[in-house]
Model the fold of this input.
Amino acid sequence: MTENYDYSEGYWKSCLFRYKRRKEFTVFEKNIDDNINIKRYKDDIVIVYYIFNGEELIGSLSGTEHENKFYISLSIINSKYRRIGIGSKLYKYVLEKYKCLVSDIDRSPSAEAMWKSLSRHYGPIINDNLRYMLKID
Done:
């Protein structure tokens, strides 16, 4: 699936459904702003970072970890919270945690802009076989 794609309401409902099934298995990770919190779900295959405004789920970033890199498979932000930096905060948190973030092959224009913004703060993007990679020390 495409990273940060402009999902229909159906995809957002699917995200909410998956979170409700996993809710009891998620753990608090970090409070990144006054009311913005990140929780994490992990099983044998996938890691999902959920971002909340208070108790309201507003987005998620899922992927896998391999060799100290986080490979993004899907990100989604509720349409009410797009273009105000919520997605960037989630990406920054995951990048700072793993020190290396690797994009999906397909990127929407919004995702392209977010990667460029991240590169202004963290250094150049490495183009690795159609994927973007951003490393920090």
In short: Helices lie at 9-22, 86-98, 109-122. The chain has a mean pLDDT of 86. The CA atoms of residues 8 and 79 lie 9 Å apart. The beta strands are 27-31, 36-42, 47-53, 56-66, 69-77, 100-102, 126-128, 131-135.
